């Protein structure tokens, strides 16, 4: 951990807790700042805030009082989930108080370089693949961010011989004025989080922050098949490393004659890859590029790609029950993710789908239903899902109360050789706190069948 004096004796407000807020508050306290934490959850229901109070950190819970901004704070560290139109953030910006996220703090104190991954889909799988490849190649990686320990904790433990592999959301990237990864990856760009960002343009601008501070000494790995991604790349000062699963490139990572290629070198045969799904080829190619740029040998990459079958809740193979193959894709919280999951299989599918209603219809999924022999729906969008299924000519459509009840019904409707796929195409918040909870209930129900 670098020793910095930037925050010594400075008044700093940490707005919103969860893991990143706790990590930021503890780090700033260690760095000698006068920290105040403000969280909306009441103190009596807030063990994180109680723990900070015991550390001697000032805590204000139960509301976000706007008058708190009059206390002369020099910086606000914001929970990524708090939107910029929140009155506290608006008030801070009107007063000229800088607003950052916890990732920026982690970067400032880290002795290790960062490999940062963002994009609409594929972030978690790509991040995990990069980490596993670097680990297999003895490159001493540490994993941080949305799928690991919060960045500020990891950065405190990191040394110069480490590399921090981090998954970053658009929310996190909006508060990173100096963050500069050695290697950045932008997997793809689709409509997402427009309720937070307002417009697609603002969403893309947030994602583009991953490369805004990179220089010609750094690398930016980008999806050559998306014009919007390439527009971001054209504005970058980093060395551009493209990838494409569908055509040969003059440089970067691509597939040719059944081989994964990086910079003209054959890495391994595509047929040996264990991870299912055509969409995962993008994730694999971008991870291979990051690994090769980090000096990982081909045998380490081969070792990972011949054994890695998926991240939990991302087209995760749960097991086989009397010939039925069960896959957990609870992370499919949008239509595109479910399209990709359906395209990964050429077997008959029993699809489990539904969830939070964000106002959209699901007719866009109809062309992807060609292998779906039955659909089981749940949640707020059950009716909309059923309408799309009927239009697609799916004959067996049944509704249940929840995911737990969907699994035994899917078993009854299926035959040996069928795929039972949880890929909801919707967020989980109508019934479950997170998509992880929804996926865990699916997994538990499958194990009960066994």
TrEMBL record:
ATP binds at residues 119-125. The keyword Cytoplasm applies. Its EC number is 6.3.2.9. It catalyses: UDP-N-acetyl-alpha-D-muramoyl-L-alanine + D-glutamate + ATP = UDP-N-acetyl-alpha-D-muramoyl-L-alanyl-D-glutamate + ADP + phosphate + H(+). It is an enzyme of class 6 (ligase). The keyword Nucleotide-binding applies. Coiled coil: none annotated. It is found in: Cytoplasm. Residues 313-426 form the Mur ligase C-terminal domain. SUPFAM superfamilies: MurCD N-terminal domain, MurD-like peptide ligases, catalytic domain, MurD-like peptide ligases, peptide-binding domain. Residues 117-291 form the Mur ligase central domain. Keywords: ATP-binding, Cell cycle, Cell division, Cell shape, Cell wall biogenesis/degradation, Cytoplasm, Ligase, Nucleotide-binding, Peptidoglycan synthesis. Gene3D superfamilies: Mur ligase, C-terminal domain, Mur-like, catalytic domain, NAD(P)-binding Rossmann-like Domain. GO terms for molecular function: UDP-N-acetylmuramoylalanine-D-glutamate ligase activity. InterPro entries: Mur-like_cat_sf, Mur_ligase_C, Mur_ligase_C_dom_sf, Mur_ligase_cen, MurD. Pathway: Cell wall biogenesis; peptidoglycan biosynthesis. Cell wall formation. Catalyzes the addition of glutamate to the nucleotide precursor UDP-N-acetylmuramoyl-L-alanine (UMA). NCBIfam families: murD (TIGR01087). Belongs to the MurCDEF family. HAMAP family: MurD (MF_00639). This is UDP-N-acetylmuramoylalanine--D-glutamate ligase.
């Amino acid at each position: 951990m670098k020793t910095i004096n930037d925050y010594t004796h400075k008044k700093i407000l940490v707005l919103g807790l969860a893991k990143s807020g706790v990590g930021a508050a503890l780090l700033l306290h260690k760095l000698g700042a006068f920290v105040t934490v403000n969280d909306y959850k009441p103190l009596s229901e807030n063990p994180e805030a109680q723990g900070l109070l015991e550390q001697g950190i000032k805590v204000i819970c139960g509301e976000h009082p706007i008058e708190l901004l009059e206390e002369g704070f020099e910086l606000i560290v914001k929970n990524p989930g708090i939107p910029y139109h929140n009155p506290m953030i608006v008030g801070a910006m009107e007063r000229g108080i800088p607003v950052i996220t916890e990732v920026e703090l982690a970067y400032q104190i880290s002795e290790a370089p960062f490999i940062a991954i963002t994009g609409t889909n594929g972030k978690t799988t790509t991040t995990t693949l990069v980490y596993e490849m670097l680990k297999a190649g003895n490159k001493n990686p540490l994993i941080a961010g949305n799928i690991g320990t919060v960045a500020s904790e990891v950065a405190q433990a990191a040394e110069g011989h480490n590399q921090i592999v981090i998954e970053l959301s658009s929310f996190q990237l909006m508060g990173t004025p100096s963050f500069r990864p050695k290697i950045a990856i932008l997997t793809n760009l689709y409509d997402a989080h427009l309720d937070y960002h307002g417009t697609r343009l603002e969403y893309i601008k947030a994602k583009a922050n991953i490369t805004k501070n990179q220089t010609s000494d750094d690398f930016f790995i980008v999806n050559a098949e998306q014009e919007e991604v390439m527009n971001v790349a054209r504005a970058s000062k980093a060395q551009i490393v493209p990838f494409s699963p569908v055509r040969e490139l003059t440089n970067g990572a691509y597939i040719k004659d059944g081989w994964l290629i990086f910079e003209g070198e054959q890495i391994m045969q595509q047929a040996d890859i264990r991870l299912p799904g055509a969409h995962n080829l993008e994730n694999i190619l971008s991870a291979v590029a990051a690994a090769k740029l980090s000096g990982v040998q081909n045998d380490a990459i081969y070792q990972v790609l011949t054994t890695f079958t998926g991240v939990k809740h991302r087209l995760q193979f749960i097991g086989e029950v009397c010939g039925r193959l069960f896959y957990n894709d609870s992370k499919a919280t949008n239509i595109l993710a479910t399209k990709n999951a359906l395209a990964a299989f050429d077997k008959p599918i029993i699809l489990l789908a539904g969830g939070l209603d964000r106002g959209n219809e699901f007719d866009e999924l109809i062309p992807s239903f060609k292998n779906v022999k039955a659909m089981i729906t749940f949640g707020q969008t059950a009716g909309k899902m059923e309408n799309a299924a009927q239009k697609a000519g799916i004959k067996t459509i049944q509704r249940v109360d929840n995911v737990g009840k969907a699994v035994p019904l899917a078993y009854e409707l299926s035959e040996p050789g069928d795929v039972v796929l949880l890929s909801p195409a919707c967020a989980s918040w109508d019934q479950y706190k997170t998509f992880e909870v929804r996926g865990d209930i699916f997994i538990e129900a499958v194990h009960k069948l066994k």
